[in-house]
# Entry
Amino acid sequence: MVTLNVNGSKRQLASSPDTPLLYVLRNELDVMTPKFGCGLAQCGACSVLVDGKEIRSCVTPISGLEGKEITTVEGLPSRWAKNRDLPVKEGDQTLHPVQQAWIDEQVPQCGICQFGMMIKVTELLESNPSPTDAEIKTALTTSGPSPHLCRCASYAAILDGAHRAAKIMAKAKK
Ligand code: FES
Ligand code: FES
# Structure
């Protein structure tokens, strides 16, 4: 039986070890922000963080993920609290800057791609707190197995969201 650490909670799973993480999150654990887009690591809709790095959960079997820290958008508030050494309970009541920025900039259109975009931007901002347009574009297009795709073409708003998130983070850390 595989046990995973998802958003800070240890979860024992009934799914077989070769099941892709995306199906386990959505069908067994009721964690619904990672979306099924292509199922082939080609769109980024299913992205989650594993030990702080983006992976495509649609093609990643759970067998290799024991002992690793899995974060979805549901877990971003706690992750943000932890990053600032705040008690997780307090942090749970505060949206992660990327979430807040996505609301402020009204980034999503249909929304299907946006959780993956937010995961990728979170990964970027944790290593580069003040990225340029070019660095954001590179992160979203060439740093993973494929570009993050948005069929609604909300790319300009995603750039604005990433910059706003960087500003919120910088302000919070002063
Ligand atoms: S659903 Fe996983 S990359 Fe498209
Ligand atoms: S907001 Fe619709 S696919 Fe990106």
Summary: Residues 108-114, 150-152, 154 surround FE2/S2 (inorganic) cluster (ligand 2) (CB under 6 Å). Helices lie at 21-28, 76-83, 88-92, 97-104, 114-127, 133-141, 155-172. The chain has a mean pLDDT of 96. The beta strands are 3-6, 9-12, 47-50, 53-56, 69-71.
